[in-house]
Amino acid sequence: MATITHSQVRRYTQTLVGIFLGLWLNGCTQINSRSTTPQGDEKPKVVATSTIIANLAEEVGGGEIQLTGILKPGTDPHVYEPVPSDTRVLEEAKLILYNGFNLEPGIIKLMKSTGTKARQVAVGEVVKPLQLRKEQQVVPDPHVWGDVKNAIAMTNTIRDELIQLSPTDKQKFTQNAEKLTQELTQLDSWITQQVKTIPPAKRQLVTTHDAFQYYGRAYNIPVAGTLIGISTEEQPSAQTVQKLVESIKKIGVPAIFAETTINPALIQTVAQEAGIKLAPRQLYSDSIGAKNTEGDTYIKMMAGNTRTIVEALGGSYQEFQYQKK
Hints:
The protein has 325 residues and is an alpha/beta fold. The chain has 10 helices and 10 strands. It has helices spanning 6-35, 51-61, 84-92, 105-113, 148-165, 170-196, 213-218, 238-251, 265-274, 298-312, and strands at 45-48, 66-69, 95-98, 119-122, 131-134, 137-140, 205-209, 223-228, 255-256, 277-278. The strands form 4 sheets. The protein has a 4-stranded parallel beta sheet with strand order 2-1-3-4, sandwiched between helices. Strands 5-6 form a two-stranded antiparallel sheet. Strand 3, helix 4 (105-113) and strand 4 form a beta-alpha-beta unit. The radius of gyration is 28 Å and the shape is globular.
């Protein structure tokens, strides 16, 4: 039998100690890496369809949720065709917030056909809709956010759904919703005052598509005519264009309006044939504006639209400024 020397024992012991020390350090590293995993990975995943709902959800949810908006600023929800990445986003979500009333038909169809287990909430459908005629039937008008009071109701729904999703963040969601509601309440009153400055005879709207009925009824500025109905999928006939031209000549409004999500070519033609001015600024209808533009939030979008309308129709505009209480 070979004799084991003291030096061999010492080297063997050192090797074992090195192995155990390495395993121990590796274990500590793994534990430490788990403990420092970014908190964002643990936040509930929320998906919003329209840019308007995404903005309201962002304001209420703050940093407590992982929010993904499917539609990008300037995208028309009526005609949006989902892409493969939308399926993955919907399947991974814990909560899906969509407008409803068939505003975003492509996304709604995809949402209903995916295997998502997320709670699906039609935020816009908490509002009693206006009923408008589309071809041979009456359908609910999906553009509910045109009345800021409806946006307040939508904000409260988003708050309640987020609380149900993450009860430990109830206080934060409640505080955020209260702050947003205060600002929306002031915005609502401000719009009323701005529209009142328009001379009554000129206080009428003519727009590209029928997206401003809620705004018109809430702030006493009737929609006198539109080129197409509530969905931008519609294509106006030459007869429709001519009827709108004749109507504009009769009512005598000083300007008509294009919209940011719709090609302005046809409404420009209407303005030219009617011999009337096309407002120099376009209205935000179905989407907020791109980041760092005048309308990149719901509140700024509504304030921007009001400025556009008031200035083009001969009113006196004063900038909206939120007064903290």
